[in-house]
Write a structure and sequence with these properties.
With about 230 residues, the chain is mainly alpha-helical. The chain is about 70% helix and about 0% strand.
């Protein structure tokens, strides 16, 4: 994967900051919309803030640092506490990945206004290469764009317990929703299996990487105009 072909200190710092920003905005969006839909717990627990230390899952974030995957944060939201359990929960769950896409779009716009050439932008986003102060800004902006798009794509996967699974659940009619819930654990096993296969790095078997990387690169290229 091109993104990890040049793990210099600037790149590592940019990636960690990008993921931290993405996690914080994602969990804040979950909590904010849940609160607006009637769930009092986010406010009671002080989750209506952009302070990353409130939302971070320390163990999960450390796992991400060490192995590239982990549960970055959490949001204590629940459908039964909302005024409209079905549609309120749908809005709160969808707010997380959609907020990541919005962050990516905003920083992609900022990236375009830095006055860099398309090649310099490509190098900052996909190769982690930067020179000079403006290049370092481009590197940070580029990683924020890329990783927020990746968080959006990953969290839209329809497997339990990812946001995408809950979005599908809320959209299904009651009879199909019941069946969908019955197979929640099965989809969780599928997710775990796909994660394990991705770590084996066997050609043709990294299905999760394919599902995530292709749309992530396509959306990122579209946002940065490359």
């Amino acid at each position: 994967m091109l993104l990890f072909s040049n793990l210099n200190p600037q790149m590592i710092l940019a990636v960690l900051l990008a993921v931290l920003i993405g996690m914080t905005v994602h969990e804040f969006a979950h909590n904010l919309i849940a609160y607006q839909m009637g769930d009092p717990v986010p406010a009671r627990e002080g989750r209506l803030t952009l302070n990353p230390m409130v939302h971070i899952n320390p163990v999960g974030f450390l796992m991400f640092v060490l192995i590239g995957f982990g549960i970055l944060g959490s949001a204590p939201i629940a459908a039964h506490r909302m005024r409209n359990p079905r549609w309120g929960f749908l809005a709160a769950v969808a707010a997380g990945p959609l907020s990541n896409l919005l962050v990516a779009a905003v920083f992609a716009l900022g990236l375009r206004f830095l006055g860099l050439s398309p090649l310099e932008i490509f190098q900052a986003v996909f190769l982690g290469q930067a020179s000079g102060a403006m290049g370092l800004v481009a590197l940070l902006f580029g990683q924020i764009v890329f990783w927020n798009v990746l968080l959006f794509v990953f969290n839209m996967l329809p497997v339990f317990p990812i946001d995408g699974w809950h979005i599908v659940l809320a959209l299904l009619p009651p009879d199909l929703a019941y069946t969908w819930q019955r197979y929640a654990q099965t989809t969780n096993y599928i997710l775990l299996g796909l994660i394990l296969l991705s770590f084996l790095r066997i050609p043709g078997l990294n299905i999760l990487g394919t599902l995530i990387s292709q749309p992530t690169f396509s959306i990122t290229r579209f946002l940065i105009g490359f």
